[in-house]
Amino acid sequence: xxxxxxxxxxxxxxxxxxxxxxxxxxxxxxxxxxxxxxxxxxxxxxxxxxxxxxxxxxxxxxxxxxxxxxxxxxxxxxxxxxxxxxxxxxxxxxxxxxxxxxxxxxxxxxxxxxxxxxxxxxxxxxxxxxxxxxxxxxxxxxxxxxxxxxxxxxxxxxxxxxxxxxxxxxxxxxxxxxxxxxxxxxxxxxxxxxxxxxxxxxxxxxxxxxxxxxxxxxxxxxxxxxxxxxxxxxxxxxxxxxxxxxxxxxxxxxxxxxxxxxxxxxxxxxxxxxxxxxxxxxxxxxxxxxxxxxxxxxxxxxxxxxxxxxxxxxxxxxxxxxxxxxxxxxxxxxxxxxxxxxxxxxx
Length: 347
Ligand code: NDP
Description:
It is a single chain. The chain is 39% helix and 16% strand. It has one domain (8-341): NAD(P)-binding Rossmann-like Domain (Rossmann fold, 3-Layer(aba) Sandwich), CATH 3.40.50. It contains 13 helices and 14 strands. The protein is α/β, with parallel strands linked by helices and 347 residues long. The N and C termini lie far apart (51 Å). The chain has helices spanning 17-28, 43-53, 76-80, 102-121, 134-137, 161-177, 209-215, 232-244, 262-273, 287-294, 298-303, 316-322, 329-342, and strands at residues 8-11, 32-37, 63-67, 85-88, 126-130, 145-146, 186-192, 194-196, 222-223, 226-231, 252-255, 259-261, 284-285, 312-313. Strand 1, helix 1 and strand 2 (32-37) form a beta-alpha-beta unit. The chain binds NADPH dihydro-nicotinamide-adenine-dinucleotide phosphate. NADPH dihydro-nicotinamide-adenine-dinucleotide phosphate (NDP) is lined by residues 13, 15-19, 38, 69-71, 89-93, 107, 111, 130, 132, 166, 192, 194-195, 205-207. NADPH dihydro-nicotinamide-adenine-dinucleotide phosphate is lined by residues 13, 15-19, 38, 69-71, 89-93, 107, 111, 130, 132, 166, 192, 194-195, 205-207.
């Protein structure tokens, strides 16, 4: 740690939906932030977006960017140099199932190991990894409350490439931090549920697709699916808390609200959007219809294991770190809709 600034944090994947909120909260809290991007061409637009969300716009002076790709070694040792903390948020979050699962798995798993190796070698004090509840609930029985001790079965049938990528990457990360190469670097994990909430800028993320498709009436109806919605600002706040709380070292924090059905979400949206003349599809789609569509459509096939298969999660440790409950999901759904509409995504 010698020579490291007490307050510099590396945030990987700075262009991303969650990373933007983590960066804004870090800058607002007084940290110096270095972000990684795959191309510095996005710098001017990203800085402008972040500035609009800061409590004090001059904080943007504490933000810099470097180039690094999870698929390459180049750039990572420069990225972590002098950082006290790393928030490793970057990972592919594909809109559709990739042709080759390795397109998602390789950057997630091997990229995480690249960042971990560089961070340990640079004497980073604590490394926070953004995993997912996908590394907890996929391919396993859901007949009890799942906790941070539970793990997805990446090899179970029906587990999609993204879920596999998050499970394999988190497993690899824990193996690395148990090895001599990790030295004394501390490690903690945030496992978010379905993250929605206001955009910083105008680009929506894959996790906005559900609400965007409902607003744009791109879905014929609602399957019997449950999601554990959580607001992006709460997720970012957990990332900050996990970074510095002494008790967070060596732990996973499931970060999600209670499971709610897509039908309930659609009803809340329908009520909220009716005065603006936006009609939301609320009628149910039976499982047999999705099974039929899934024969031709890989993305529909990925949803099948989750249909009529809700889960519940033990998330109180994350809430205890924040010392407050999550923002209520209906409020988060309404704010997400407003943000997507304002950004032009509801056409
Ligand atoms: P986004 O798609 O908005 O952000 C993903 C980020 O990862 C982007 O900055 C992207 O960069 C970067 N990235 C992707 N591939 C590479 C690569 N090969 N090298 C370097 N950077 C790369 O996703 P979210 O903000 O929603 O997700 C962020 C993290 O949170 C991910 O790890 C995701 O798995 C996790 N998560 C997200 C949830 C959600 O509901 N959104 C739920 C649970 C976990 P670029 O702009 O260049 O593409």
